[in-house]
Amino acid sequence: MGKSMIFRCLFLWVLGCFCGAFANQEKDRIKWLPGQPQNVNFAQYSGYITVDKQAGKALFYWLTESPSDPESKPLLLWLNGGPGCSSIAYGAAEEIGPFHIQNDGSTLYMNPYSWNKVANLLFLESPAGVGFSYSNRTSDLYTFGDSRTAKDAYKFLVRWFNRFPQYKNREFYIAGESYAGHYVPQLSQIIYRRNKGIEQPLMNFKGFMVGNAVTDDYYDYIGTFEYWWTHGLISDTTYKSLKHACLSGSATHPSIVCAKALDAADLEFGNIDPYSIYTRTCNTTSSSKRILMGHYPWMRRAYDPCTESYSKEYFNRPDVQLAMHANTTKIPYPWDTCSDIVGNYWSDSPRSMLPIYKELIAAGLKIWVFSGDTDAVVPISATRYSIDALKLPTRTNWYPWYDNGRVGGWSQVYEGLTLVTVTGAGHEVPLHRPRQAFILFNHFLNNKSMPSQTSS
User: pTM to 2 decimals?
Assistant: First the structure.
């Protein structure tokens, strides 16, 4: 076979691969979502990527491209934590996604601070058993842990980039919150290590950001108990009990004595939302909540603590699942915001992510950590203790950052890491402070420090 024939065959093979990939993309294209507003001007795709054919294990994704010039925008993978919680329920439907769900559970409205204005957003329900993601091997749901979740997510990405080859050379970032404080660094580490020594890696990975992130069991416990005590949520006695019983153990699987101390703290909290300690809880029925919102329209613009219930209604609708190419295998349980089975049977959870931080900081990746300061679950004090333990040199000392002349939070820039707080935000920063979270993400993408008063 002559050289010209070899090149021709190679060209046809590559062309066939691309044509096959784009054909699979088109199968995943969402033409219209039930309840979707009329003025949607961006493409969206959703569907399954098989990560283990033998086990029948497939992960569900939702891609919402940018409405303006998506070809030039970076790609962001968003992961929620739990472990066992859905990135579609939280990240997409009530935080950074372009659509949020009305309190009727059936109509959508546009999020004016959606992050897809500046990036293409990829939401992944991970691991299998979470949301629409599934495994036909039931035992998988009882044996998931950090290691397998990271490996499956990497397999997903490899196969997703093959389905969407136009993204292979695009700047790629990962972000998430809560227990994604484990998912994001671990997946980032795998990508970094697999990319080493490759001239043209599959993923043009540039860095990650995490919010209110579980990072190190010891420092997280110290900072969390301190936050509870200094904010008047627990008694002196319970504070001392927690420090005595819990500091030497695992946050994911606490000892019996630690669990009892945590139960005592929970009783002392009272009926508050620990994820957002100064806002009201969702303790009304669905119907009465709708009546309340109808009589007091200004509450539509305020933080809504019942958004999870709207997600459950919307994503369990057969017409929504059909439009999103979801639940094609008829999973024998309803879609839910979090999987109790996956979360309760979590098998492995390293006590610290700090060694991974050190490795990836040394690699020169862009790393930002942000924290809402009214979260009592993974509070700002826990995050600060963990970052302090890295012993990084400071480039810019602690300073207030501003949004329209008002303090939006505080920031400190270290060698290799930027810390940002968002004032008045709870555990889900983009839910409680969407505008400030959007400003934060813009500055992360542009690698610019948060705006001081003089530069705002």
Answer: 0.90
